[in-house]
Write a structure and sequence with these properties.
Elements lengths: L1 H11 L6 H35 L1
Helix pairs in contact: 1-2
Length: 54
């Protein structure tokens, strides 16, 4: 979560929107968000399965 907040902070700065660095930051942000969603989804599924096993 800390990395996502850091990248959001970087993107808000106008200098980061110029050239390839802005695109790179957006790419990293996108990867971070997708990765976080996958982890959350796996945790929810794991919790759901464990609750129903016992």
């Amino acid at each position: 979560m800390l990395l996502i907040l850091l990248y959001r902070g970087e993107i808000r700065r106008p200098s980061f929107l110029d050239g390839t660095m802005g695109k790179f930051s957006l790419l990293l942000l996108g990867i971070g968000v997708i990765f976080a969603l996958i982890i959350i989804l796996l945790a929810v599924i794991d919790e759901y399965l464990n609750d129903h096993d016992s």
